[in-house]
């Protein structure tokens, strides 16, 4: 029996891992107890659905609204299916190529060093506020081409846009901030149309995916999506990853950095779920799913599945080298466009931290945000030991 605290639009707190385990034990695909949709909890089912856009579409909406209905948006990269999806993705994919990431590394390292400068051994610091919030925000603003003086405004704006990330805000306040952000971005996009620069806003402002420029609405939706996608998610992997090292003494610093980064992503899985809708009747996870029925893909649950990651899947192991693909970035054609960027930020941060500090420990009790969609730490005090 699925309990009432099952993830829906009112879900708060960190991932409910005990519940995930029960759902996987029930077969990996179960009916949601209150919403008219299926819940995919096992690695095999989440992987199968995400891999097959012909059978499971994103175009009908990938998130649920406050009352639990899937909501559709104007078409964007995340809300389109092949072949339109490739057109949207092609507009921004060049900005995330490995060669661009390599060029960005020096800039990321400089930002990391500046953020680490005030962090001293023995002084408790909030890893969320001092590292995990500013780093991805600075990097995505840099890539998009937002003038540096305006970066602080984006923290408030992205908090307002992610459902549940800033529970103290009223619906009106959130709407106002959302509108402010959109208006601001449109202003910058119009400036870039007149005077293009080497940045993502200029690329999008001038792009003609179907022989025509994006409308103002499409442009704003796209930019907001990039801003939000590149921000909150990476934040939670940075803070959750450092907390994992603090809670698992002896694993810091990691000998195998690429493995540690994948383990941090598996462990934190900041995206709780995205939806897909079946395009035709299918048999999946032993269940019959009808055409049009929605499925909620629980990435955090798939990433703790013992069938994919072994009997110690519930343990943080920075040296883990699993054969199964981690699903924190999704899978298939919608695989996270910013994956290389997020990995770059994590790698540079871990390298620079390991150069300075020999151990990391917790101070006090970490607090989670209340987002039903992008889950992670809101406050987490750590202490490092110097070399
Ligand atoms: C740890 C950090 C991150 C995590 C866990 C994450 C997670 C995800 C997931 C699960 C998806 C799949 C969406 C789907 O299947 O419908 C996705 C897509 C996407 N992500 Fe990320 N993301 C991260 C960082 C970033 C960054 C830094 C960016 C930079 C802008 C970014 C931009 C995107 C975009 C544009 C898509 C849509 C791709 C598409 O639909 O083709 N993400 N991400």
Automatic annotation (TrEMBL):
Q: Which domain of life is it from?
A: Bacteria
Please tell me whether the keyword Plastid is annotated for this protein: no
GO molecular function terms listed in the Swiss-Prot or TrEMBL record: cholest-4-en-3-one 26-monooxygenase activity; heme binding; iron ion binding; steroid hydroxylase activity
A Pfam family that this protein carries is p450
Keyword vocabulary terms for this entry: Heme, Iron, Metal-binding, Monooxygenase, Oxidoreductase
What GO terms in the biological process aspect are recorded for it? cholesterol catabolic process
Q: Where would one find the signal peptide in this protein?
A: none
- Family (UniProt): Belongs to the cytochrome P450 family.
Q: Under which name does UniProt file this protein?
A: Cytochrome P450
């Amino acid at each position: 029996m699925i309990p009432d605290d099952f993830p829906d639009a009112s879900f708060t707190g960190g991932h409910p891992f005990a519940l995930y385990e029960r759902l996987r034990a029930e077969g990996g695909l179960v009916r949601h107890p209150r919403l008219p949709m299926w819940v995919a909890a096992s690695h095999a089912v989440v992987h199968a659905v995400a891999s097959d856009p012909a059978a499971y579409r994103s175009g009908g909406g990938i998130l649920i609204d406050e009352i639990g209905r899937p909501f559709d948006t104007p078409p964007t990269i995340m809300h389109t299916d092949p072949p339109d999806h490739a057109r949207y993705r092609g507009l921004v994919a060049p900005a995330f190529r490995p060669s661009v990431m390599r060029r960005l590394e020096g800039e990321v390292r400089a930002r990391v060093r500046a953020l680490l400068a005030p962090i001293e051994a023995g002084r408790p610091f909030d890893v969320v506020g001092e590292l995990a919030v500013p780093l991805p925000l600075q990097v995505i603003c840099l890539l998009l081409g937002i003038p540096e003086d305006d970066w602080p405004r984006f923290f408030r704006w992205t908090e307002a846009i992610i459902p549940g990330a800033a529970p103290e805000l009223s619906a009106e306040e959130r709407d106002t901030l959302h509108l402010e952000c959109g208006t601001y971005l449109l202003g910058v996009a119009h400036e870039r149309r007149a005077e293009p620069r080497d940045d993502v806003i200029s690329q999008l402002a001038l792009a003609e995916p179907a022989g025509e420029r994006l409308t103002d609405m499409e442009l704003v939706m796209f930019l907001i999506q990039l801003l939000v996608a590149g921000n909150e998610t990476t934040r939670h992997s940075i803070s959750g990853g450092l907390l994992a090292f603090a809670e698992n003494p002896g694993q810091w610093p990691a000998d195998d950095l690429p493995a540690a980064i994948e383990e941090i992503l598996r462990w934190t899985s900041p995206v709780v779920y995205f939806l897909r809708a079946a395009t035709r009747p299918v048999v999946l996870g032993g269940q019959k799913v009808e055409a049009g029925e929605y499925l909620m893909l629980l990435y955090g649950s798939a990433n703790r599945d013992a069938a994919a990651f072994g009997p110690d899947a519930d343990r943080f192991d920075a040296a883990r080298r699993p054969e199964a693909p981690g699903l924190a970035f999704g899978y298939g054609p919608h695989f996270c466009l910013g994956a290389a960027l997020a990995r770059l930020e994590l790698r540079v941060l871990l390298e620079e931290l390991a150069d300075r500090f020999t151990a990391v420990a917790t101070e006090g009790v970490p607090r989670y945000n209340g987002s039903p969609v992008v889950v992670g730490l809101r406050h987490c005090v750590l202490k490092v030991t110097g070399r």
